[in-house]
From TrEMBL:
<dbReference type="InterPro" id="IPR036640">
    <property type="entry name" value="ABC1_TM_sf"/>
</dbReference>
<dbReference type="InterPro" id="IPR011527">
    <property type="entry name" value="ABC1_TM_dom"/>
</dbReference>
<protein>
    <submittedName>
        <fullName>ABC transporter ATP-binding protein</fullName>
    </submittedName>
</protein>
<keyword id="KW-1133">Transmembrane helix</keyword>
<keyword id="KW-0812">Transmembrane</keyword>
<dbReference type="InterPro" id="IPR003439">
    <property type="entry name" value="ABC_transporter-like_ATP-bd"/>
</dbReference>
<dbReference type="GO" id="GO:0034040">
    <property type="term" value="F:ATPase-coupled lipid transmembrane transporter activity"/>
</dbReference>
<dbReference type="InterPro" id="IPR003593">
    <property type="entry name" value="AAA+_ATPase"/>
</dbReference>
<dbReference type="GO" id="GO:0005524">
    <property type="term" value="F:ATP binding"/>
</dbReference>
<feature type="transmembrane region" description="Helical">
    <location>
        <begin position="67"/>
        <end position="85"/>
    </location>
</feature>
<dbReference type="InterPro" id="IPR017871">
    <property type="entry name" value="ABC_transporter-like_CS"/>
</dbReference>
<feature type="transmembrane region" description="Helical">
    <location>
        <begin position="281"/>
        <end position="304"/>
    </location>
</feature>
<dbReference type="InterPro" id="IPR039421">
    <property type="entry name" value="Type_1_exporter"/>
</dbReference>
<feature type="transmembrane region" description="Helical">
    <location>
        <begin position="30"/>
        <end position="55"/>
    </location>
</feature>
<keyword id="KW-0547">Nucleotide-binding</keyword>
<dbReference type="Pfam" id="PF00664">
    <property type="entry name" value="ABC_membrane"/>
</dbReference>
<feature type="transmembrane region" description="Helical">
    <location>
        <begin position="139"/>
        <end position="163"/>
    </location>
</feature>
Length: 568
């Protein structure tokens, strides 16, 4: 099921249920885990009843129980060993799968939802959702849900069994449990608040840690260390205080549960003792059976008191999974097999981010196959936005973008298979991300299997020579996360080299030369010029020297009027 459809179908519903469609492929495993857990519980009830009966018989009557009891008891012990082992195995495997499904859904949502990110969203908080909330929910879906389902069966089965002995036993059992639930309800509201406080404070901690790591230079530069340390300490203190408070309440709730269990056992014992039809030898067995029935039920009640924070976690995960997705494959996929450079036709394409303000007003632009066009414009005019639309990182709100082959019909870019499109059009941005790893690993992100020779050739063409002093391990030299250990100019050249490896038929450069000195800019522009004729190049720049190398220069603000005659 498409994630977006799912969200539309479940919006406004309970988020805990809303996430279930994302785990649909695991439902059989979940059901099986629940059944195994239930069978294990029932085997334990049987063992408790049989064990008590055998011991009571021996103590009260001095008799050894018949072999049937010993065989059945041995079989139950063996069954429990097998079921416990199987249950552990199953529940670990399902837990990892549920965690993976939630996290993959979330990462998918984050990556598709990039354009809709509002300033209110912080990568640190999103990371906290991806790590903390998913783990909490993994436990809920892989364990709690099956535990609750098993508890319902145990409640019905246990009440029925006790009713068979006498209605007063069943009544004592049910009334005792109902009293416990009623006593538990008033705790819920405070637990919700505390759970939320813990989660919010953890989120803040995560956001602060990300700020601290990614903005370390600003923090040093502005002398903010003490300020950040204080904020981190406060966030930690909030978490510790709320968690302490929650733990105290949980301990008190556990005491209440134990008291209720005790009361139920006393009631069941008295009711069983007063059953004329029940052999007194069976009374301890009934009490032991009730005790083993109560254990999963008490756990279920404890879980119910902790459900509300799970609901908030589920809401955050659901929001992440269903982040306003770019439906990049809205148009039906058409075959597109042409050779040579591709022209571009922008027909009234426009775009707004989540805040609704137009980032790019409708614009019209025609670039011939093999042409090298330079686009300039005032800051904030929408040049980067246009570049990202051209690269289909997201889709225009209205209008369209077409690819024009030298021969044959032009085709709407949205109807080209996304994988094929990625091999045709490549974007290099000024702040292109370099991942943690070696230079070669970064090159292989674009084209897996790139050889050292190919990487060196592409780097050389981009004006980056890996001399032994600066790059002791050549293409195997590690470059830090985000390219922090390379200069802005080196990063731009690595990014261009990575794009050249793709051999795109349209290359979009967004301020790629902005941080280069004149000599390196010239080398890089020579590399771009060498593509002339074979690759269409759209260069966005403020730099006169870069724009001067283009066949044609365009001001973005002049593209907002629809031309009188548009190519068909
Ligand atoms: N993620 C975002 N969310 C909301 N608004 C955004 C986002 N990114 C950019 N904008 C806004 O969209 C508008 C166009 O931004 P864009 O980066 O395309 O401009 P630009 O012409 O490339 O600017 P510059 O020359 O300064 O790089 C600006 O008003 C900018 O503030």
């Amino acid at each position: 099921m498409n994630a977006q459809d799912t969200h539309t179908a479940t919006r406004g519903d309970d988020p805990l249920w809303g996430l279930i469609p994302y785990l649909a492929s695991h439902r059989l495993s979940l059901a099986w885990t629940g059944l195994v857990g239930l069978a294990n519980n029932l085997a334990l009830v049987f063992l408790a009843v049989a064990g008590s009966y055998v011991v009571t018989l021996a103590l009260a009557e001095g008799q050894l129980a018949s072999p049937r009891w010993w065989i059945a008891g041995g079989a139950a012990v063996l069954l429990r060993v097998i079921l416990t082992w199987h249950e552990m195995d199953l529940s670990h495997s399902i837990a990892y799968r549920v965690l993976a499904a939630l996290r993959m859904g979330l990462f998918d949502g984050f990556s598709r939802g990039v354009p809709s990110r509002s300033p209110g969203q912080h990568t640190g908080r999103l990371a906290a959702t991806a790590m903390g909330d998913t783990e909490k929910l993994e436990f809920f879906y892989a364990h709690t849900l099956t535990q609750l389902a098993a508890a319902v069966v145990i409640l019905i089965g246990g009440t029925t069994a006790l009713y068979q002995i006498g209605w007063s036993l069943a009544a004592g059992f049910v009334i005792g449990l109902a009293t416990l639930v009623l006593l538990t309800l008033p705790w819920l509201r405070t637990n919700v608040r505390l759970g939320e406080t813990v989660q919010r404070a953890k989120s803040n901690q995560s956001a602060l840690a990300v700020d601290l790591l990614s903005g370390s230079r600003e923090i040093l530069g502005f002398g903010l260390q003490e300020h950040v340390q204080r904020q981190l300490a406060e966030a930690t203190e909030v978490v510790a205080r709320a968690e302490r408070h929650l733990k105290v309440r949980e301990a008190a709730a556990a005491n209440v549960r134990e008291l209720c269990s005790l009361a139920i056992l006393v009631v069941v014992f008295l009711a069983a003792w007063n059953q004329p039809a029940l052999d007194p030898l069976w009374v301890p067995a009934v009490v032991a059976g009730t005790l083993t029935l109560l254990s999963p039920l008490m756990d279920a009640v404890a879980v119910l008191t902790q459900l509300q924070p799970h609901r908030a976690s589920a809401a955050r995960v659901l929001e992440g999974i269903s982040m306003a997705a770019e439906d990049l494959s809205a148009a039906p996929v058409l075959p597109f097999a042409t050779t040579g450079p591709l022209g571009i036709n922008v027909r009234g394409a426009c775009f707004s981010y989540a805040d609704g303000a137009p980032a790019l007003e409708p614009c019209w632009l025609s670039v011939a196959p093999g042409e090298h066009v330079g686009i300039s414009g005032r800051s904030g005019a929408g040049k980067t936005t246009l570049a990202r639309l051209l690269a289909r990182l997201w889709a225009p709100d209205a209008g369209s973008i077409e690819l024009i082959p030298r021969t044959g019909r032009s085709v709407n870019a949205a109807s080209v298979d996304l994988r094929v499109f990625r091999s045709l059009v490549t974007l290099v941005e000024q702040d292109a991300i370099i991942f943690h790893g070696s230079v070669l690993e970064n090159m292989r992100l674009a084209v897996p299997g790139t050889t050292e020779g190919q990487a060196l050739d592409a780097l050389g063409r981009s004006g980056l020579v890996l001399d032994a002093g600066r790059w002791p391990d050549g293409v195997h030299t590690t470059i830090g996360e985000g390219g922090t250990s390379v200069s802005g100019g080196e990063r731009a050249r690595i990014a261009l080299a990575r794009a050249l490896l793709v051999q795109p038929r349209v290359l979009v450069l967004d301020e790629t030369t902005a941080s280069l000195d004149a000599a390196t800019e010239a080398i890089l522009l020579d590399a771009v010029a060498a593509l002339a004729g074979d690759t269409t190049v759209i260069t966005i720049s403020h730099r006169e020297s870069t724009l001067a190398r283009c066949d044609r220069r365009i001001e973005l603000d002049n593209l907002h009027t629809e031309p009188v005659s548009q190519p068909a």
